[in-house]
What does this fold into?
Amino acid sequence: MDHFLYRDGALYAEDVPLSEIAASVGTPFYVYSTATLERHFKLFDDALEGIDHLVCYAMKAASNQAILKTLAALGAGMDVVSGGEYARAKAAGLTGDRIVFSGIGKTRDEVRMALTGGIRQFNVESEPEMQVISEIATELGAIAPITIRVNPDVDAKTHAKIATGKSENKFGIPISRAREVYALAASLPGLKVIGIDVHIGSQLTDLAPFEAAYLKVAELTEQLRADGHEISRLDLGGGLGIPYERSNEAPPLPADYGALIKKCVGHLGCEIEIEPGRLISGNAGLMVSEVIYVKSGEDREFLIIDGAMNDLIRPAMYDAYHDIVPVIEPAAGTLRQPYDIVGPVCESGDTFAKGRDMPPLKAGDLVAFRSAGAYGAVMSSEYNTRPLIPEVLVKGDQFAVIRARPTFDEMINRDTIPEWL
It folds into this structure.
């Protein structure tokens, strides 16, 4: 469920008509619903009620500080994967004890930043990384809390580019080697082993892969405890999918996911962390764009819009589907026709949909891309010297620009011309 609904023939974000935002900030733009963000976070938090837990929002999905502060106010922790995300979480008011640092390529500077600024834990992905954290913690006279990410060799049955739990993926250590790697961790100075981390992929639409991975983690927990390790925390990752195509069967609900967690690992007495991102922010955001031209091709009609692949790259990168709807609701019985919906970037890959049935549209009409709140704005770029598009947050009948569109001068003036030119 989201809070983007037609009302009196116009699409609203909560109590604000999208046309009003477009008139104020121009197109294209991203818009997020506070009520949807809050509702989706609470679904996960409620799903783990009754066990010690922390929901750490995977901020790589959408990392604007206004979104982070909205979720932090509800008690969210943050899962970060870079020094920049760590700094952004701190700027949004998160304390170090609510920040989990994931990612396979943590640099020495990033490790030092987190140890000096405070960190809940490092999710360690390799022995070389473990050695580096040990060295820096010892140098600083600090103790680094760590979990070790295990790769359970479970097929998440998701897109190959967002699967992370199979043996050929770059993430974690093979679960078959976990006991020897935990033994190494216990021998290194400056480290405190506190638990196990696992994450098998993103946009999962079936609970079976989660169950297979979590049962392996439960078995490993018992083995590691028998080896003398204190395993008090299980970071079970995220990855629960959202329904991008409304006609498809909906993925499992957070309540079912929470029940599965309790069934698989609830008996172990561990604090549970989960790292949802997409399901919290995905359906909480739209990208709104304006039709520039309607162009007749040899055998098709093109809707050329002012949004482009640099603004929303998922269709070009993953062949991802987004529902695209007119901001003005078509009258009942309006006949639809197929359009190829494309952007203005000079690449054939700048195509959002082919043969998509839409009501007749004309230049100046607005369209909204649903389910664009995750991996939309955060993956955008200034390709073709196109400005990053505004982000807008709605709360009830209010809206605020939370990232402004830069001017051409602001973009160009970031360049530095060498003296010899």
Summary: The chain has twelve helices and 21 strands.
